[in-house]
Amino acid sequence: MILSALLTSVGINLGLCFLFFTLYSILRKQPGNLRVYAPRLVAERKLKQKAEFNLERLLPSAGWVKRAWQQSEEDLLENSGLDGVVFIRVFTFSLKVFTIAALIGVFILLPINFLGNQLVIDFSDLPNKSLDSFSISNVNNGSKRLWIHFCAAYVFTGAVCYLLYHENKVITLKRIACFYASRPQAHQFTILVRGIPVQAGSSFSESIEQFFTEYHPLTYLSHTVVRQTSKLQQLMNTAEKLYGTVDQLKSEERTSQGPQRLGLFGNKDRHLRTLEKKLEVTEDSMRTEQSSLNKKDVPAAFVSFTSRYGAATATHIQQGVNPTEWVTEQAPEPDDVYWPFFSASYIRIWICKLVVYVASAVLTVLFLLFVVIVQGLTHLEQLESYFPFLKSILTIAFVSQVITGYLPSLILQLFLSFIPPIMKILSSIQGYISMSEIQKSACNKVVWFTIWNIFFANVLSGTALIQVNVFLEPKKIPTLLAEGVPAQASFFISYVVTSGWTSVSSELFQLVNLIWSLPRRVFSKKVADDLKVSSIPYESEVPRILFFVVLGITYFILAPLILPFLLVYFCMGYLIFRNQLLNVYAPKYETGGKYWSIVHNSTIFSLVLMQIIAIGIFGLKDLPLASSLVIPLPILTLLFNDYCRKRFLPILKGYAAECLIKKDREEQNDPRMTEFLENLTVAYQDPALKPSQYSRNTDRQTSPLLQPTEI
Amino acid sequence: MILSALLTSVGINLGLCFLFFTLYSILRKQPGNLRVYAPRLVAERKLKQKAEFNLERLLPSAGWVKRAWQQSEEDLLENSGLDGVVFIRVFTFSLKVFTIAALIGVFILLPINFLGNQLVIDFSDLPNKSLDSFSISNVNNGSKRLWIHFCAAYVFTGAVCYLLYHENKVITLKRIACFYASRPQAHQFTILVRGIPVQAGSSFSESIEQFFTEYHPLTYLSHTVVRQTSKLQQLMNTAEKLYGTVDQLKSEERTSQGPQRLGLFGNKDRHLRTLEKKLEVTEDSMRTEQSSLNKKDVPAAFVSFTSRYGAATATHIQQGVNPTEWVTEQAPEPDDVYWPFFSASYIRIWICKLVVYVASAVLTVLFLLFVVIVQGLTHLEQLESYFPFLKSILTIAFVSQVITGYLPSLILQLFLSFIPPIMKILSSIQGYISMSEIQKSACNKVVWFTIWNIFFANVLSGTALIQVNVFLEPKKIPTLLAEGVPAQASFFISYVVTSGWTSVSSELFQLVNLIWSLPRRVFSKKVADDLKVSSIPYESEVPRILFFVVLGITYFILAPLILPFLLVYFCMGYLIFRNQLLNVYAPKYETGGKYWSIVHNSTIFSLVLMQIIAIGIFGLKDLPLASSLVIPLPILTLLFNDYCRKRFLPILKGYAAECLIKKDREEQNDPRMTEFLENLTVAYQDPALKPSQYSRNTDRQTSPLLQPTEI
């Protein structure tokens, strides 16, 4: 890729970003768009809808930037929970890391790279200059200047580790502080028990009651056996929909009883009869289903305790003699429970897990084929040889620049957007019991999927198409990476500009939601009251951000030109996501910043990757001494990682006895606790059996059958 | 190696075994040898020493075999604890596995191998026939008969997995039963706390008292802060020895006050004065040391609870907010505590661990060089080319047969005997707090050391000297092993015969102890009362047995000729170790069969190794379909292993809440518990500070200083 192609790409994307920003700042002020750009504020009824028109509404303004900037971390914590704070801290952490990187990279490494003459360069023609002349490939082989790159690797690793340690410390302290500040929450007092053994003649419920009253007599409070309600839930949804339609049809019938509609009325009448028939059938099956629910007990239950410490004790110590029975784990928040999948037996969960691992691997491998084809687009000659009829079009300079600079990453981007939902489905099969766990696991899968399928596939497809072979010869990996990674520098710089910049600005603009909202506004007269405020889709956003962190750290030594573009990305991301957290997204549940471990792991991974590539590149550049002297660096980094895992990971996973007991004591004499504990006994009822689910629809006249029966 | 060489070796070793057995059955009946052959019975005063002489004492008899055989598992459990039972069960498990293997191997695989004609064989000369003609190498390439080997691999894997599952189940059930049957023991109620944080102005003791009375008010009983007593311990030992010598000299002085010894007396007098001076100096330093002991508190303490469940709760839940502080673990038995090494900080233990890993790796690599040289002895030509002057000796048939059949494994054996103590030292640096943990860790290290340095070094040195290279190209491993492993079959058959048979029979004969006991009996007139009964050196015995298991499983398909020899080994081992457990060894502490996990792991490892070699060998034998069809086998085996780890490992590691609470309740109303809990508060005092240590020496007049002062 030449410099002018990059500049074209930067130009297009800057233009797009600017366009998005301008449009956003105008559109967000239109009252009709409030449900797109500030659904959270609408839902929380924090907005006064000004109906009168004024000129100001049509002028772009940067007020939102100011508001996003001014928000303090305390506000953020209150608005979006610790998860939101951690999410924003990923940006600040990246900004810190890449500011240091950019200072070293742009002011020290870039000039050195540019002044080398390993690659044949025509100094007169800067715009047509290959981007490779800004990369380490341009430094002369065996040059003493490479020692500066060597020092940069050490300094940068030290800096990143220091920042990582600091960030870990801050986040874990915040997590504990949040715990101390929290009101009593159902999930803190509750555990999930699976693999409940049962004696002949007694039910699961009796078995649980007996076990916990015997072994936890002081702290045991109550339990809720999980039931297989997925079928009932489906039937209920169907019935609810049918009832809604029937209701609407009936009301229309009532209002339009004129002779002019007689023909139509006959049709509608028939339709109404069919629907009512259907509704009856559904209600019948629901009745059958409900009466058989008692037999559909799953050997799993939510068991509540009177204290947090009691619950933690039951989670941490193996309860039954057989470790595959009475398996306990911390319960998720009631809203966070993933009801559809409650794998019954230990073995089944275990098999599901294995199947999901295999499925993820297959998905990853199949995706590679696609990536290889897309990657071919950056090599115009290859494209021409595959599709000869394109030759005439590709000779036009602008077209070829767009294709090499823009199209590949756009296609990749499109297909990658299908991955997070797929991974989420896979994770949900894996046997997690909470949405947040599923989301976190999907997030982790997507991170590694992205790194493998974008980074490695791109880097290695030019040199070795079948990657598996490479990983069977680990000795060659540093050299192979050192050859492949710098060669793809231009692709990734353009990737940052196109994919990175566009993704954050389109996040702000919410194009899809905007388009979706239009037909609804035109056709549906009454504005439905049930506005759904979504939470941040962590499983797609976190991997995207982390991938840029990986790119930045990996290319820090090789092609520092990428760093300024990354800084722009993280600055934009910081502002835009603060704005979105304020206006758009509302957290559904809180994990207390558990996502941070994924960030930590991928940062360590990219550091080690950078160091391995450094080993390879110093070898290639005829500086074997530097190559060997880098070897301690990955070892030290991994030791640092090991220490951090010991020091911080336990805090992210659970809470210490000290915290739990302190918190329990604080509330011991709180009069509100009695009420809380009373509510706790019903907190973990399946929504399919809960009356509260229908409270939303009480404005309609609900069919008596939709009221769940007492079981 | 040819058949006659093997037969020579078998002959020599059978003779040796027979000799040992005969000598043993005679010598054990001599009263003077009781301290060698039945120290346990002597110590427990279970033997009536018959002084009168009769002829029966000089005749060999097999009564000990009968006694060893008749002993029931309950007796064994009572005598040697669960560790002893598990140790013997390793033999019965191996016997079961290799009976199945031998049935398939000798009656099905061996004839098939022998009837092949891949290797050029002269049928007329059986004694000079290479042992390779009994191995799979002799089956014709691409022969359909190899499918029988293929089936054998599947059947054998299934059988071993079934037996392993069964054994795991039996052992875990026994472990729980033993726990229920046990009397209250100090270590069940106690935990070790490390990384105790301390506020300025307060001591560790106050800090612990405060923390546990605050967070475990109901179950906390007492604590004992650990002190750095290694120096005091050393001084005490020196003082004790000096005092003993002075005492003896004085008493001699008193009895022999005649003029005839005047010259000698002057000398002795001077010697006595020097010793007394020394004693004084030592006592002075002891005084200084004791007075400064208060300042030598280590941030570690044994904390006792009033219930087992209380202790378990404190172990399983992270106590302090910072996971590197208040680190808890289950305390070992008081006699099992390894006092000399109490690493203070979390970081220091962590660094020590890393250092030990590196040291073990270095030891392993350095030992390889030595093995390579020894391995050369089986190739006579190589030896002749290295040492030309040996040519004339080596032409003598007997010498060459002894050298190839006997010498290499003897030398290896000798050097290997230094490894367990070295590994034990390394493990003790690793920061374990109990002897049993150190022993178990050393055992594990020695197992892998043996497998690597005997198995892999022998197998690969012929084909690829620098093994590290091999493991960097994992794709080639199956082929490489398939080439190397069958080629070394004859070496390992002779290894089983020489090293295996000799080791068990010499275990019975206790040659070293017998020789050591002779001078003592001759020169020392009074028989010292403090007879030391040792426990089984698991760290050297378990790896030896497991190595034969690995050999047997690995060579099951390749060279079934090894199996009968292994069966003989395990039969002898079973009888002899039962006898030794009865007469010689007494357990010092009990781990409750924790060693079993090492046995399980190495069995799984050898199964997978066997399967990987099978993949390679079917490939080499032009049967690619069989080669691919074996691939699911290691995957299934690893899945089985994963299941077992989940199902049984937790039981080997700790006890479930159910067990602990049941046991606690049982003893709740036991009047003896009050006394037990009172004793518990002093159970974990450092022996250097305990009065009881000197009670042994109360028959001598102890120096008042040797009485530990109250601190």
Strand % of chain A is under 5%
Helix count from the secondary structure assignment of chain A: 30
Strand order of the largest sheet of chain A: 2-3-1-4
User: Kindly, what is the distance between the CA atoms of the first and last residues of chain A, rounded to a whole number of angstroms?
Assistant: 68 Å
Query: Main β-sheet of chain A, in a few words?
Result: 4 strands, antiparallel
Oligomer: homodimer
Helix content of chain A: 55-70%
Round the Cα radius of gyration of chain A to an integer and report it: 29 Å
Protein name (chains A, B): CSC1-like protein HYP1 isoform X1
Organism (chains A, B): Spinacia oleracea (Spinach)
Subcellular location (chains A, B): Membrane
Domain CSC1/OSCA1-like cytosolic (chains A, B): 188-340
Written overview of the protein:
The structure is a homodimer of 711-residue chains. Chain A is mainly alpha-helical and 711 residues long. Chain A has 2 domains: 3-183 and 349-659, no CATH class; 189-332, no CATH class. In chain A, 66% of the residues lie in helices and 4% in strands. Chain A has 30 helices and 4 strands. A 4-stranded antiparallel beta sheet of chain A has the order 2-3-1-4, sandwiched between helices. In chain A, helix 5 (73-115) packs antiparallel against helix 6. Chains A and B meet through helix 10, helix 11, helix 26, helix 27 and helix 28 of A and helix 10, helix 11, helix 26 and helix 27 of B.
